[in-house]
Amino acid sequence: MPFGLKNAPQIYQRLLDNALYGFLRISPGAATEETKDLFATGEPDAKSGLSIAVKSTWGYRKVEYLGHRVSKGGLEAHPKDLQSLVDLPLPTTLKAMQSFLGSLNYYSRYIEDYAIYASILYELREVDFHAWRCKWKANEEVTAQEDDEEKWSKVQVAFAMLKNKIATASILRHFDPAREAVIIVYASDWAISASLVQNYDGLYMPVMFTSRTLKSNEVNYSTVEKEVLALLRILETCFTMLVTRPLKVLTRHSTLAWLVKSSGLQVRLGNWAALLSQWTLEIVKCKKGEDQVLGALAASITPRKNVDSILSSIAPKKQSRQVADLPTPTVELNEELYVMSFDGSARVKQGGGACSAIVWRLPAWTIVAAASKYLDKSTVNEAEYEGMLLGFDLLEPMERRRLIICGDSNLVIRQMRGEIECKASGFSPLRAKALSKLQSWSTHAVYM
Question: Where does the Reverse transcriptase RNase H-like domain lie (predicted)?
Fold first, then answer.
C-alpha cells in the first residue's frame, strides 16, 4: 500500500476484519456466555488457538480514546486532566498561551463558536505579554493606555469563557444518514459560525460546530454574504458526511435563498453560486425570527441572540482594510516615459528579506534596468521602501522625463502620496530619502 494514502486506515481495518472473521465467525450481539468468559479469562480457543490479552476489555458501552469518550450516544470531549485545565490561571507568556490554545483547538469541534471566543487570544504577541509582565511583576503604579486596559479585560473574559466551554462541552451525536441534515448559519460583524444538527424527538442535537473570524477584506461584506461564507465552511468541513444529501439551512435572511436560485451573478456572488450549485439546499427563513426555532434547539446550542450580547464583551478591534482609492494611470499614444515597479518581502523570524525593482521605457515597454538585493534585517514594509530606493538608483543616470511608479504596498504608496502619516521610526528615514530622490523628477505619479 503506498505510503501516505488518505484512506489507508480504512483499507487496513477492512483487511484485519476479513482476516479475523475466519477465526471467530461471531456476529455482534450473538456472543454467548461462554464467549464472554473466554474474553474475560484470556484462555485460548482450542479449535483456532486464538487467545485474548488479559488487559483487553469487552462489552463496555462507553470507551475512552485519545482524549475522547465514544459511546452509542455520540462523542464527548474528555481531556486527561480537566480540572487542571479549568483551574489554569491566565498565561503570562506567549508560549504558554499558544499551548493553551493548542490544547483547546484539539476539541474545537465540540466548542460552539470556538474561533470567535479565541480570536482576541490569537491576536496577542510577545510584546503584549512583556508589557503585561513588567506592569504586574514590578508591582508599580503604571499608567496604562486605555486601549491596553480594555484589551486585557477582553482577554481575561475570553479566557474564562473558553475554560467554561471546554468544561461544559456538548455531546456530539454520530451523524445518522437516515435523518435529515440541518445547518444553522450565523454571522456577526467580525466572525461567522455554522452548526450541523439533526432532529432527535423534536430537538436539534449538534453533530459538528465550525467557526472562524473574518479577514479584513471580508468585514465589509453584507450579512448575507457572511452567511454564505459560514455555509461554505460547514459544507467543506463536513463534505464526506453531507455530499449527495439534501440539506436544510436555517437563516434569518431570505436573500440567501435568492442567491442560491439566481443565475448570471457576477464576480464573488457568481463564484459562490457556482460552489453551491452542486448541493441540494432548502433555505428556510424563520418568519418570526430565531424565536421560531429556539424551542427546538438542544440546551447545548447557544441561541444566536445570546451570542450577540456575549460577543460585545470580547470583540477584537477588527477594521476593514483601507485600500488607497487611486486613479488608473493613463499613457498617451506613443508617449515616451519611464515606468518603475518595485516589490519587497521579509522573513520576520529569520530576520532577513529581499527587494527588487524594474524600469521600463515606453511606448515599446523595453526593460532598461532591473536589480535585486538581499536585506539582513527588515520588515515587509521596510523591504518595500528598500525596493523603491533601489528603483531610484536604477533611474539615476537616465534622462529626466515623465515617471510612473507602481507598487503593491498600500502603506508605502499612501505614505509617499502624503495620504497617511509616517509614524514608525524605521520608515521615516526611508521615506525622506525616497522623497528626496523623487524631487529630481518634475513629472511623476505614484500608483498601486
Answer: 176-278
